[in-house]
Amino acid sequence: MANRFYITTPLYYVNAPPHLGHAYTEIVSDCLARYHRLNGEEVWFLTGSDEHGQKIARAAESARLTPQAFVDQMIQPFQTLWRTLHVRYDDFIRTTESRHIRSVQAALQRLFDAHQLVKSIYTGWYCVPCETYWTSTDFSAEQLAQSVKTCANCQRPVEALEEEGYDLRLGGEAQQWLLHHLDTHPEFIVPETRRNEVRSLLERPLPEVLCVTRPVRRVGWGIPAPFDAHHVVYVWVDALLNYISAVGFPDDQQRLAHWWPADVHVIGKDILRHHAIYWPMLLHALGLELPHTILAHGWWTVGDVKMSKSRGNAVDPQAVVAEYGVDALRYFVLREVPFGHDGVFTEEALVKRFNADLANDVGNLHFRTLTMVEKYTSGRIPSAHQCERSPADEVLARLRQALPQTLERAMARYDFVAALEAILVAMNRANKFIEEQAPWTVAAASHTARLHGILWQLLETLRVTTLTLWPFIPHAAERMWQALGWAEPLWQATDQRTLAQRIETAMFHDGQRIQKGQPLFPRRELT
Questions:
Q1: What is the pTM of this model?
Q2: Which secondary structure element, helix H or strand E, spans residue 266, and what is its range?
Q3: Are 430 and 396 in contact (CB under 8 A)?
């Protein structure tokens, strides 16, 4: 693996509190960042807030606040939720910060000086909630005949628009260049369904230009264009440029060279066009490399309807965590559906998954094993040298040995379901091992060496699976790690060992004392 890993989320509009869709993006990104940290890599995890544009200005007006006071207030629920979800980001960038504003203006000035921008009149439609332009080519003949047209993304009405702006040329050679890049870099857009979607868009004519600025008379809340006081930067261009403004563009070239290009942009599929077409075109015009991968996830739905704040069907992640715990929510969204697919959220599904996996497999193995260590060895880890081995131990040993490579393969293809299944297979097998080996019977027969051998196999399986669970359910994994007798945290920033090396070297000490504590995941009933 590379020795550095730069991962980003989109910047979230702060016109309303976050819902489960936002939480999912952060959890996925945090899981990937933690996995790469656990593998000894230097990680930079960027998230933040999108605070300009017409939508924010209107929301601020409705709240009877200035736009700046409104966004200052509205970022709080996002940052609070990320702490609740144990999201460990390295940087939270706001588009109203001076460092970002300077970077955006420098990027636009570079485009302007290179004669990449043209001044023209746009005539078409605009979706304020999505801050997205739509032209007649985006609508069918039937839709064009209708008096009210709706956004292809959010299905809300769009507004007819005619306005002057500075634009970046699309199409022609640039379009063919991007199509070639897509075909020669299959990892550029994941999953394949989203890559095929973008390829289909690139095989037909794109709009002639990409809006880069909007007139101040229409949108006053934005970053001023450095070359024309009558214009502000189009909010999508403003937001996309955060991926380079946060890592040094244009002033800190050493930092930019270290982190750029990004390894992964994690996004929702509804903003794929902006990230997979407009963002590469901007980077190409600026003379910068493209990100390695754009990772587009599906939607979380309630029934068959996409979850959204405007529809009033958004699930509040804070309420879910308050009722079921942070580990339950993180585990559910990562395990329930393959990445890239749409997921249906219900409390029934969450409770079922919680009981089947976390209570029955993870919690059961953890509590039963430590209870037996308390009972049979006075709460101390038996010495491996005093343990009697058995051929029955080999199944667990092979599962433990294979786990780092199995996880590496799964995480390389962003298959969180397969990664968690591999961990749960080992834990489920350990639970069966308890029943098969019946340590209570061995203890009754005073066969101490074999009893210690059984406990040691179970403890080793717990040690390895606890390490591998950390990216997914870090709060529970840290508790499990401490219960196994370690005083130091499971992961420390100064540790550059790979996961396989950690498993090989983070061994129990003879006589290490456990701290059993309370059951991790008591079974739940639907409230």
A1: 0.93
A2: strand 264-268
A3: yes
